[in-house]
Write a structure and sequence with these properties.
Elements: E1 8-22, H1 25-31, H2 33-53, E2 57-62, E3 65-70, H3 73-91, E4 102-114, E5 117-119, H4 121-132, E6 138-141, H5 142-148, E7 158-163, E8 172-177, H6 180-185, H7 192-247
Parallel strand pairs: 4-6
Antiparallel strand pairs: 1-3, 1-4, 2-3, 4-5, 6-8, 7-8
Helix pairs in contact: 1-2, 2-3
Length: 249
Amino acid sequence: MARKSSVRKEGRKLSIIFAADVAGYSRLMADDEDRTLALLERSRRYIDSTIAQYRGRIANTAGDSVIAVFESATEALECSLKIQQKLAKENARFPKNKRLIFRVGLHMGEIYTRGSDVLGSGVNIAARLEGYTQPGAVCMSETFLNIAEKSVSDLPIADLGFVELKNIDAPVHAYEMLSDRAAREGVKFRRQSQLTARRRKMIVVGSSIGVVLVSLTVAISLTFSLGRVSEMAQKNKVAPNAELSRTAP
């Protein structure tokens, strides 16, 4: 008899996934284990209470990592920003090499439940986005951002483009907030209508450039052809005279 899977099929659903862990955790533990564990415990108390405040559910935890699921993309994003901003203030008291800085990844995807844990491709992508982003930042997939766009219309975002993530088959279009890149570029997310208008403008500009290039190519070809015709005409004009000069007595 085939063994039944421990993953409950009825637990399969689309969810908002929050993934977080500490940047450089192994180094911090090697430098000062007791201090790092004390800071981690303090940070986790705040993270856990903030996730609960925004109606999230903590699922998987191991060491410094946290996986949580939310019903609302807006609440997941607001929770992430609040956590990072609070922890940034706490870390400002310490030297840079002593700071316990979290990275956060957000994605909307399919998950499965196994007891209180969640797993699946959606969890994997959120975790990889978290690992890809800068310390102290929040990295989001475009899938997530399309749901949460109204919450971030006035906040700076860096468009990272399509990024290759470890063990993820297809590239993921990623965006980053609360990062040096976002602050430096000052990019603001555009609503869908604005994005559409921008794409149309780019298409028009691209089409215009294409027309110019085609026209230029035709002009060059025509100039070359006319030059060849003129050259041939000159040869034809000279040839009879040369023939006459050879046959004259």
